[in-house]
Specification:
alpha/beta, disordered N terminus, single chain, 6-stranded mixed sheet, Leucine-rich repeat, LRR (right-handed beta-alpha superhelix), 7-stranded mixed sheet
Length: 371
């Protein structure tokens, strides 16, 4: 009887050991799978790799600014992107999901994006398990963690972005057939090429709360006739309204300090523009090829006008510049425009300075601004 109990106890012990060994092996397999998944976090021109919740140096590559998340997570169906990561005792904020980050990741079924992410790159989720599941699409649109990722290209008419949406991702509306889009106050960022080539888009309603409009956000929206940019917007990126050929009027946010490169290039229907009072710098080609532009009002704060800023604006008749000191004209701001027929209005006491500055004295008449 004792021998039987002893043997039985040994058998039970063997089973426990075998069970424990299986668990260890399963855990090892899990770690192996998890470690084969990598999320790349990019900051200050360097790539970093997040493996098993540890940030590891990957390579020294010069790219863009900010923290960027790029994923290759074929083995994980659920991913939670951290809002912050720690490296060498320092805390870094995750602000961007890069282009193609999770593209074609078929096994990806769910992902959690933190509020810290303000920029979602082109095709970041295209072809993924999330994207391909029609159950994730509501009213022709795909939202992830209150971010608008994509809209079906076949949709048309008017579209109202869902309340509480934080970010409109890159190319979310690109090539869509909507005539009107309403953006709620909850949206803080319109990402790169978000509305590019929406050729039927006539009206975009934006509300206070919007902070940034990224590069080429409304490029080639050929039916867009007017835009009012909310006061809350403090940054507009390059070519944001490039070749919006029907754009007749635009009200810029008084919070911006810079008009970026080619922002309104090719807006051939634009007739007048008033630059807000905080703007210090107008970049190259900002209003180039605006063939209908007749009047420009420049603020007292303006310091620099870059090359070709108003080139080929051949209908230009009047420039009103409130700056007491003539802004620096880096190179032919009115290239291919007849300056001799343009009237320049400046503060009365500043007229001698303008007449003594080569690039400004070439205008036909320099007159005092009428109070």
């Amino acid at each position: 009887m004792r021998w039987f109990n002893s043997a039985n106890g040994l058998t039970v012990m063997k089973k426990k050991l075998l069970s424990m060994l299986c668990k260890v092996l399963l855990f090892a397999c899990f770690l192996s799978i998890f470690s084969s998944c990598s999320m790349y976090l990019r900051r200050d021109y360097r790539f970093w790799r997040l493996r098993s919740n540890q940030l590891i140096f990957e390579e020294d590559t010069y790219t863009s600014d900010g923290m960027v998340v790029v994923g290759e997570c074929s083995f994980l169906p659920i991913i939670r992107i951290p809002s912050h990561v720690y490296y060498d005792g320092k805390k870094y904020t995750v602000t961007k999901i890069a282009d193609n980050a999770f593209k074609n990741e078929a096994n990806l079924k769910r992902i959690f994006i933190p509020k810290s992410v303000k920029d979602i790159g082109c095709n970041a989720f295209y072809g993924s398990g999330i994207y391909n599941n029609e159950k994730n699409w509501k009213n022709n649109a795909l939202y992830i963690s209150k971010n608008l990722i994509a809209v079906h290209k076949s949709a048309e008419g008017t579209y109202e972005v869902a309340e509480d949406t934080r970010v409109i991702a890159s190319q979310a509306f690109a090539n869509c057939n909507f005539e009107k889009v309403v953006i709620p106050a909850s949206v803080s960022h319109i990402n790169t090429e978000a509305f590019e080539n929406c050729r039927l888009l006539q009206e975009v309603v934006m509300h206070e709360g919007l902070l940034e409009i990224e590069e080429e956000a409304f490029r080639d929206c050929h039916s867009l006739t007017s835009v009012i940019i909310p006061k809350s917007v403090n940054l507009i990126r390059d070519r944001a309204f490039y070749d919006c050929t029907s754009l007749e009027s635009i009200v810029l946010s008084p919070s911006i300090t810079h008009v970026p490169v080619s922002c309104f290039h090719g807006c051939i229907s634009l007739k007048s523009i008033e630059i807000p009072n905080k703007v210090k710098w107008i970049s190259e080609y900002a209003f180039s090829d605006c063939k209908s532009l007749e009047k420009i009002v420049l603020p007292r704060s303006l310091k620099v006008i870059d090359a070709y800023a108003f080139s080929d604006s051949k209908s230009l008749k009047t420039i009103v510049c409130h700056a007491m000191t003539p802004p620096e004209d880096k190179l032919w701001m009115c290239h291919n425009v007849s300056k001799s027929r343009i009237k320049l209005y400046v503060p009365a006491q500043a007229i001698p300075k303008y007449k003594d500055t080569y690039s400004w004295r070439q205008f036909g008449k320099i007159l005092p601004i009428e109070e």
